[in-house]
Amino acid sequence: MRIIRDLGELREHRASVVTIGNFDGMHLAHQRLLARVAGVARPVGAQAVAITFEPHPVKYLAPEHAPKLLTPLERKAQLIESMGVQLLVVLPFTRELAHLSPLGFVRSVLLGPLHTLSVHVGPNFRFGYRQAGDTEVLEALGRQEGFRVEVLPMLEVRGERVSSTRVRELLSEGRVQVACRLLGRPFSSYGPIVAGLGVGRKHTVPTLNLAPVEEQLPKIGVYVTRTRLGATWHDSVTNVGHKPTFGDHRLTVETFLLSFSGEIREADMEIQFLYRLRDEIKFQNPAILKVQIQEDARRSLKFFRLRRLFQERHSKRQTSTQPAS
After folding, report:
1. Whole-number Å distance between alpha carbons of 275 and 292
2. Domains held by the chain: number
3. Domain carrying residue 78
4. Residue range 259-277, pLDDT digits in tens
5. Which string of DSSP letters, residue by residue, matches 112-139?
6. Helix/strand/coil percentages in the chain, nearest 5
C-alpha cells in the first residue's frame, strides 16, 4: 500500500474508489467499509483509496474536547492495508482544509487528484466547513459532479452500535471483552519498553514497563493480557495504574510475563487486553501485594487454559463440519 500526505504527489490519472474517515480504532464498521471499497474497485480496475486526517480534526478545531486516540497512525495504516486498500491519503488537517466548503472538498480532493468513481461512507459522515456536509449533501454533490455515493448502514454487534466513541466508553469502563467484539480483535497498546522504578523486581515480581502513551488506555486495574516481544506472544498479567502500595506515582502500564524466563532483547512491545481481573488496590505492604500477584497469575493461567481448550474444540468442530473432498 502506498501512503501519501500530499495529493500533489499523484501524477498518474487513475480512477479511484474512495472512503473517507478518521478510522480510529479500525473497528468492525471501518473494516466493513474498507473491504467494500476494495471489493468495488477490483472488478473495474480502479484503485482502492482511504482518506484520513492527521491530527484528528477535533484535536485541531477544539483540542480541549479531542478524544484520546485508540490506534496510532502506523498501526492504523497496517490494518487499513490488510483490508485491501492500495492508497492511503493522510491529509494534514490544516486551516485551509478545515475551511473548504463541501463542494470545495469534493472538487479539490475527490475529483481533481483522485478521479473518483464512487465514495463509500458511514451514516454519520460529515465534511466541509463547520461540518456543513452530511450524507445527503454528499449524494447531491455526487449527482451533480458525476460520482456514485454509497452510505452503509450503522453496524450493530449484539445490540451494541459499533463506533470509536463506544469503544472508548467501554475501555474507560474496563469492559475490554465487549470492546474486543466491536473491534474484531483484542484492544492493544503499543510502545517502547522503558525502565521502571525497580520496585517489582525488588519486592514482588519482575515486570516490563510500557513507555507513557498518548492513546487511550483501559480503566485502571489488573488485566489478563498477551504481550508481544518481536514476533513472539507471551501470556501475561498487566497492571494499569499508579502503584499505590509504593506511593502515588504517575500512571504506568507494567506487564508480568507468565511462564517466561530469559533475557529481553526487544525494545518495543504490544499488549493485548483480554479480561479485567480486578481494581488496582493499595496493600499494606509489598509482601501482601506479592501474594495477590500470585493469585492474579493463577487466575490468568486458568483463563488461558480454558481459552485454548475452547479454541481447540471450536477448531475441531469446524473441521468436522467441512464437506469431504
Report:
1. 17
2. 2
3. 2-157
4. 887 788 889 999 999 999 9
5. TTT-EEEEEE-TT--BSGGG-B-HHHHH
6. 40, 25, 35
